[in-house]
Input
Amino acid sequence: MNEREFHTVVVGAGPGGLMAAHRSDVPAPGLLLLDGGDDVDDRVSVMRSGDRRDVVTRGFGGAGLFSDGKLCLSPRIGSTVSHRFPPALVSKRQHAIDEILRSGERADLHGSDAEAAKGLEELAETAGLEYVHYPVRHVGTDQLPRMLKRLRIRLSGNSTIACRTTCLDLRPSGRRDFRWELELDGPVFKRVHAVNVVLAPGKVGASWLGEVGRALDLRRDPARPKIGFRLEGAKEFLAPLLKVATDPKVIWSGPDGVEARTHCVCYGGNVVPADYHGLLLVGGHATSTHAENRSNSAIIATAGRRLPLSVADVRGLVTGINSRYGGLMSQRLGDFLSNEDVAAGRAVRGFSPSLPGATPGDFTTEFPAEIVHVLQSYLHRLSTMCPEILNPENVLYGPAVERWASRFTVNDDMSAPGHPGLYLVGDGPGLTGGIIGAAETGWIAGDAITAEAHR
Output
């Protein structure tokens, strides 16, 4: 058995793991950064071949740093731990992360027009919605490979990088001076011992992390997933929102925990299939040129206490849809809303659908009735801000799911209480929901590891 020793092992090379590796200044025997997916060049090659499924969600850079690259600079967005720190400190850290992750790639900062944002906030309020405004950089899909290659070169100077390497098991080490033993499946490493382990598996690794958490008795709260679809229309159909922000967040909070919101808006981009360990979902991405004649946004919802769906419930629902439709399904918006009050008399501006091969279906029968009602109600409310939302020729693709991960309990340095040397960061443990938030938790963990190593 090939056994090695490292001071620190980072499991997952998404934004959380990359920033943890970047901020960890550790002595010999050094740091190992591993990921179960492909390295940068291999991801690019597979993407260009047209097979986007698994490569979108796994590999060096993670999901967001390969498929769309939205850098949301706000303490309010994408993190459940930012509130623990002074806002000025969070802002300073996020802007530093922005520079590091982009690695020289230029991207405009959108969302600086406070007056226009105020107008949207007031309009949202009239429809019983909340518009959350924050600055965003969008690093396009065309820029991300160059960015990731520069990041990889920078990290390879002080880290051993092992892609196509999966962590099978994690347990306390029996070796002196090492706290953890990891069983790996990869071409080089099979078993390693480490003083510190950073678990940053991303959303795609949330179920695996759940198993690890049960084995180690880590504290956590159960996940409350949101489910919905991607809404696609002509390029400018979201123009009233996109003129003010690159990734507008519009939220409806109803009674008994009901909630619906926009998520990951892609202007001039595509809807793409994304494989999450055998479950096929929809994602979205756009290049920096926003060249496509269509735009899309995820619309996700929870029925709250009226229908408290568990992760197992949603996995079963997605599995059933994938099986019945041979993958993803699609539906004309006018059919989902039964053509009731949908853009009567409004001119239809043509666009070519992203996924013409998606099997036609009916979300009103595939989703629970409570979820359907929330989604339909939300779309009507959202049309107050953006009338073209209700164009009957818009297309729905699904399923889309967010909030897969249970939220694990962590200390302020991202360490797991009662488990010295074990750190949890990013989307996988349910602490974040985006690139900057995930990277910030990795930054915090890396600083803690560095501080301990130099005592």
